[in-house]
UniProtKB/TrEMBL annotation:
Domain Extradiol ring-cleavage dioxygenase class III enzyme subunit B: 7-269
Source species: Marinomonas pontica
SUPFAM superfamilies: LigB-like
Protein name in the entry: Protocatechuate 4,5-dioxygenase subunit beta
Protein origin, superkingdom: Bacteria
Gene3D superfamilies: LigB-like
Coiled coil: none
One family name in Pfam for this protein: LigB
Length: 284
């Protein structure tokens, strides 16, 4: 069967792409952020996963406010980036994985998740920044990517319990896939942050660190939060924690934390990096 060997949480803020494009990684502002990534890169280069399942949210490139699916996933062989208006250079295409994608799509729809299935899909910084963080210099073409997009921009949005159950369903789908491949799951996005309004710049470090702890040892506790709880505790954009929660849902077996870093503020955001090793349950 296919094997989920691990998972990663990472920020995806567009300023990261600009910093990398301009060689700013070792400047005083960025150094504490970028210095945390080599252990995760080393692990990925050692394990050489075949597929990345990447949870992210689209910021208006593919899905705008007039059409906003609750959940969407790509089943294409290739995904293209485009100009989003952030000044980020357009980057090379991302390699897709259509066979496992279709298997997951069929499996989770059978379980009651009404996914929007995308045979063509542009991907924005929510997906491309994490890939370039892990394989700098756009050296990600060798790994196949399955994008799973969660609405975190416009109400109504899925609640944490539902995103966790989506992750569970995807984990079961991977487990039932007969081809012997290794999969790593990315949960991307900011932790606490608010980009506008009266609380612009709000960051709750204690809440972020507690969430990182619970992602390892008690993920079900995070499903007790509502989206409004996340907004109250972590700011308006803290609903992006739903990508971390969905990622954790895919891990059906034993989880071991290998690496962690928390840094704030970075572009007015709390950034949590975590590497989790995963052992798939046997005989299920």
């Amino acid at each position: 069967m296919a094997n989920i060997i691990g998972a990663v949480t990472t920020s995806h803020i567009p300023a990261i792409a600009n910093a990398m494009a301009n060689g700013l990684e070792q400047t005083p502002y960025w150094k504490p952020f970028f210095d945390a990534y080599p252990p995760v890169r080393d692990w990925l280069n050692e394990k050489k996963p075949d597929v990345i399942i990447l949870f992210y949210n689209d910021h208006g490139l593919e899905f705008f406010i007039d059409k906003k699916p609750t959940f969407a996933m790509g089943v294409a062989d290739e995904y293209h980036n485009a100009d989003e208006g952030w000044g980020i250079p357009t980057i090379p295409p991302v390699t897709g994985e259509s066979e496992l994608s279709w298997h997951i799509a069929n499996s989770i729809v059978d379980e009651g998740f009404d996914m929007t299935i995308c045979q063509e899909m542009k991907v924005d910084h929510g997906l491309t920044v994490p890939l370039n963080l892990m394989w700098p210099g756009h050296q990600y073409g060798h790994v196949k990517v399955i994008p799973v997009c969660i609405n975190c921009e416009q109400y109504p949005m899925p609640q944490p319990w539902r995103t966790f159950e989506l992750g569970r369903a995807i984990g079961r789908a991977v487990q039932s896939y007969e081809e012997d491949i290794n999969v790593v799951v990315f949960g991307t996005g900011g932790m606490s942050h608010q980009l506008d309004g009266e609380r612009a710049g709000f960051i709750n470090r204690a809440f972020d660190i507690d969430c990182l702890d619970k992602l390892v040892s008690d993920p079900e506790a995070l499903t007790k939060y509502t989206n409004m709880d996340l907004v109250e505790q972590g700011g308006a954009q803290a609903v992006e924690l739903n990508m971390h929660i969905a990622m954790r849902g895919t891990l059906l077996g034993k989880v071991t934390e290998l690496h962690r870093n928390y840094h704030a503020p970075i572009s007015n955001t709390g950034s949590g990096l975590m590497l989790l090793e995963h052992e798939m349950p046997k005989g299920e």
